[in-house]
Amino acid sequence: MNTADAMKILTTSDWHIGNLFHGNDRLPEHQHFLQWLLSRIEEQQPDALLVAGDVFDNGNPSAAAQSAYYEFLADATRLCPQMKMIITAGNHDSASRLEAPRAVLTRQNVEIRGNVHRMWRQSEEDGEGAWAIDFDDLMIPLEGKDGLQAVVLAVPFLRSDIVQHASYSKGVNLILRELTIRARGKYPDVPLIMMAHIYAKGAKIAKCDASEKIVIGGQEEVNFEGWTDHPDYLTCGHIHKRQHIWHTSWARYTGSVLPMSFAEMDYQHGVDMLTIGANGIERVDFLEYVPQHALCILPRNDEILPTKKLAKLMLRELPERKDGRLDDSFLYVVLKVGLEKSGNDDIRLLEEAISTRNAVLCKIQKVMPELDLTTISTGTPIHSIDDILNRDPLDTIKETFTARKNHEMSEHQEQMLRELLEKR
C-alpha cells in the first residue's frame, strides 16, 4: 500500500445531542460542532467515521435532536460518499431506537450497532441448544482503493443481560477477547480497530461534580492489563476526559465533544484521526475542536469576595453585551459567593451585573469559608454512638454556629440558647 493509499479513520464519541446545560438548550452548540466535523470530513476525505456511543443525551431524544443527527448523516454522505460511518450505542442511548433505521442506513453506507444480537445454536453432539452472541454481526470490514484494509469491531454498551456474568468486568473482557480472537481467525493479517463504550480501570474522571455515570465502587470497571492479543487499536467512549487507557499504548478515550459540567471546563475536545498504512497503524493525530461557549468560574481562585467586589470583577472579566443581547460566543458562568453573602439583595446585585455581560449565569455556588478549628473551644471528642447520645445539645449547636459564622456565639446568645433548651 502506498502512502497515498493510506486509510484514514476519524474517531469520536459522547456527543450527547439533546443535552441541557443548567437548563440551557445546547442544540445550537451541537450543531456548531457537527458543522465543524463536516468541515473536517470535507477537508480530510476519510475512509471511515467511528462514533463510539452516547450519540444522544437520553433514550428519548427530542425531534430537534434527532433531526440534527440525521441531517448530519445526510450531509456527511454527500460531502464524502466513499466514507463509511459506524455508530454504536452508549449507555445514554436507546439501543433499539438508534438501531431502528439500520436497514435503511446500511444502504447509505452507515452501519449502526445498537444491540448485541444473539442466535440459537444447537450442538451436533448432544442436541442441546443455547443462545450465543452473533460475533460476526459486530465485525464490519472497511475497504479502500486496493481492497480490504481494516476491520472494525463495533461493540455497543454491554448491558448486564448480555454480559450475564457474576463479575461485569470479567464478563466484558471475555466478550471483547472472544470477539478479537474470532476476528483474527476470520480476517488474518488485517488491522483490527475496536470501538467500545466502557469504563476502563484507571480512567481519569472529574474529581467533583462528575457527569460520567459511574457505578459506585467501580463494579463496571474493565481491566485491560495483561491483554496481549488485543486489537491493533481501541477507541472508547463513556469517559469525557481525552486520555490513554491505563496501562496501554493502543487504547484511548477521544473524550466528549462538549464539556458536560463545570468540572470539565479544562478538558480538550475534538476527534482523533487514525492513519493506517502498509505496516499497520502509522499515527494518531488529534484534531482539536473549540466549543462555541467557554466556561468560566468567578472568582477564578478560592478567594471569597464581598458582593460588590464580585460584581466589579464580573464587569471587568466578562465581555459586554452588544445592543443588550447575547451573541453566538457568550460564556457560561458560575459565581462563587460566601454563605453570609447570599441574601436576596446580594443575589439581585449579581444578577443585575451579569445582565449587562455577554454571559449566561448557570449557578450561584454558595461557599462556606474555610473553618478555623482553633475558634472552637467547646469541642468534645466523639468516639462512639454513645458519645453522640450523651453529648450536651448546646455543644453541638454552638459548634454548628461557629462553623457557619466562623466565630463563636456571644455570651448573650449562649445564655438565650441555654434558657430555651432548659424550657423544652
What does this structure look like?
The structure is a single chain. With 424 residues, this protein is of the alpha/beta class. It has 3 domains: 3-288, Metallo-dependent phosphatases (Purple Acid Phosphatase, chain A, domain 2), CATH 3.60.21; 295-367, no CATH class; 373-423, no CATH class. Helices cover 29% and strands 25% of the residues. The protein has helices at residues 27-44, 63-79, 95-99, 102-106, 160-163, 168-186, 307-317, 344-354, 385-389, 393-405, 411-423; strands at residues 7-12, 20-21, 24-25, 48-52, 84-88, 110-113, 118-122, 129-133, 139-144, 147-154, 192-197, 199-200, 221-222, 233-237, 243-244, 251-253, 270-277, 280-288, 295-298, 331-338, 359-367. A hairpin with a 2-residue loop joins strand 2 and strand 3 (24-25). The chain is globular and about 90 Å long.
Tally of individual domains? 3
How helical, in percent, are the residues? 25-40%
The CATH superfamily title of the largest domain: Metallo-dependent phosphatases
In CATH, the architecture of the largest domain is 4-Layer Sandwich
Number of extended strands:
21
- Could you say what the CATH topology of the largest domain is called? Purple Acid Phosphatase, chain A, domain 2
Structural class: alpha/beta
Mean of residue pLDDT values: 88
Total helical elements: 11
**What is the CATH C-level name of the largest domain?**
Alpha Beta
Strand content: 25-35%
End-to-end gap? 88 Å
Main sheet attributes: strand count, strand direction, barrel closure = 6 strands, mixed
Molecular shape: globular
From the alpha carbons, calculate the radius of gyration and give it in angstroms.
28 Å
Low-confidence residue ranges: 373-378
Widest β-sheet, arrangement of strands: 6-5-4-1-17-18
